Structure formats: C-alpha cells, structure tokens
C-alpha cells in the first residue's frame, strides 16, 4: 500500500503541480497529514505559534491517479481516519460567530483517551464533560481547472469544505479537471459541529486511508447507475421516457448529472451536494438546485414534482461559516432515488 508522507504538503491546489505519489485507479493509499496550523506549537501563551515559513491549511499530496482524465469523476472511499494523540483549538478576533467577544486570541489543547466506561475515543472538556471523537476531513480536493485555489478555500473542486459528514465510511465524488486528478487531503478534525462557528474544529493531524477510482462516462451503464430494471426502450418518467433513451444513453445522462452536481457525498443512506459561495444564501441555493437537478435526472421526475420532492424530503445544513467562501450541503434520501433504479457506483 502506498503511503504519502506528511513531508509532501501543499497549500494550493493547482494544475501542473508535481505529484507526491502515483497510483492506479482502484488502489488504496494512505495520506499522512499535518494539522491546519502546519503543526505549529499552539499553546495558551502563543495561540498561533510563530508561523515563519509555515503553510496555511496544508494538504498532503497531490496524488496522481493513473488513467484519470478530465471529464471523469473521482470516487474517494474514506476507509479509515487515525488521529494523533491531541488536538488544538483557538479563538479569533476577526473570524467566526464569536470574534467580537475576544480582545486577543486564546488556545486550548485537548489530549485524546479511551473512556474508562464506554471504551470510546474522546477527550475531557473542562475536566468534567466527556466528548466522543467523530473524526472528519476538512480539506479534500482535486486540482481545479485554470488558476490554482489556496487549500484554505473551498470550491467546485472540493478543497476546504469543512463538512463533518466527510468521515469514515463515506464516499466523496470529486471532479477530474486535469490528467491524474491530483488529489490532496489534510486539515483533520477530531470533532466539529455544523457551521464551525468558533473559527475551527478540534484541529489535529493523523492518517487517512482512501481508495480512489476514476469513473468514466462510457462505463456508466456498467456501474449500474440506473439499476437492472431499465429496458432498452427507455426508462420511466416523463422526461426520459419521452426522449426515448436507451439504457446506456440514460445512464450516460445520469452520469453527466452526477458530474454537474460535484462535489457529491454519499454518507449512510443520504446523498449530498456540497456547494460554496460568498454568502450562505448563495451556497444554499446552489446546493439545493444541484440536488434537484440530480434527483430529476436520476428519477425522471418533471420540474414540478422534483421541486416538491426536494421540499418534502431534502435537508439543508451549514457546513462552515469561517472560510473565504461559505459552504452548505443539501441531502436527499438515496432510498427514494433507488425506487427509480438510481444508485451511486
């Protein structure tokens, strides 16, 4: 199994970057990560440390996936997240929901342990409140098309999404914009609430084990994106059946809808669009509309019914309010789309 060392880090996701490692599609790779402060010595007396030449929100990579070409979808299966022995938090005087409360930044360090009664990994908060760890990935993205994007900024390529549902067992789908995709991962959190309200989660470093697979449009039918019950005469639903699509054409159409909805997350029995914009309103509208478009393409529901289904069954949630762009996710139950034969590969 390939391991990418924490020595191989970047603070910008950009095309043409020298790859830290190469792998085949379908291979499993371990990313060793630093924390978002580039492993600065964050303490009560020095809440930001001495940055010097430290990187801002460094991500390990990039990983070049052989055979991944622009137009593909990169499937990233998050198999395992391992944490170092402690995490750090800080306050801010210029970011987050509470910055107006602080005259100067402060920091705290929390060490992880196993709860003596429950056996769960977590930490003591204020020496009396036990909080279970729920590890997640803050930064995960491919190289964008065109200009590079700092690792601290989220976008259509992924990046600093700070979505707490990107955790063990989830599958993130990202765009392939450049040959090899150039995947980078970093900014682990041991625990973080939706919104990342204070300015950060419990920031830490560790190891992330992922399996990466390049999905191609010409193989969409083989992935079974529209299930086994689709006939060569087309599929149910006014829009698709009316178009007289074959099963292969319908699968290709759904693949393109998936690609247009990226970044896309599968976690538990939910599928989620994750979108970022300058304001929460803009991000929410993007996430909701991209999910509606995907649901319509996957089910064949018309404009009216797909919108109603979203209002009945969809959920919007704020991922973070502290990055250069704000991030919102929109989730929808996969079992509903499965009734129409849709599945994610």
Q: What does this molecule look like?
A:
The chain has 345 residues and is α+β, with helices and mostly antiparallel strands. It folds into 2 domains: 2-215, Jelly Rolls, CATH 2.60.120; 218-338, Acetamidase/Formamidase-like domains (Endonuclease I-creI), CATH 3.10.28. It contains 6 helices and 24 strands. It has helices at residues 220-223, 238-243, 247-260, 280-299, 303-313, 334-338, and strands at residues 2-4, 9-10, 12-13, 21-24, 27-33, 59-66, 73-83, 86-90, 107-111, 113-114, 121-125, 129-132, 136-141, 149-150, 154-155, 158-160, 171-175, 181-189, 203-204, 206-215, 264-267, 270-277, 315-320, 326-333. It has a 9-stranded mixed sheet. Strands 2, 4, 6, 13, 15, 16, 18 and 19 form an 8-stranded mixed sheet that branches. A hairpin with a 2-residue loop joins strand 21 and strand 22 (270-277). The longest helix is centred in the last third of the chain and has 20 residues, at 280-299. It is globular and about 65 Å long. The protein starts with a strand and ends in a 7-residue tail after the last helix.
Q: What does the secondary structure layout of this molecule look like, with pairings?
A:
Layout: E1 2-4, E2 9-10, E3 12-13, E4 21-24, E5 27-33, E6 59-66, E7 73-83, E8 86-90, E9 107-111, E10 113-114, E11 121-125, E12 129-132, E13 136-141, E14 149-150, E15 154-155, E16 158-160, E17 171-175, E18 181-189, E19 203-204, E20 206-215, H1 220-223, H2 238-243, H3 247-260, E21 264-267, E22 270-277, H4 280-299, H5 303-313, E23 315-320, E24 326-333, H6 334-338
Parallel strand pairs: 1-5, 4-6
Antiparallel strand pairs: 2-6, 3-14, 5-20, 6-18, 7-17, 7-20, 8-9, 10-11, 11-12, 13-16, 13-18, 15-16, 17-21, 18-19, 21-22, 22-24, 23-24
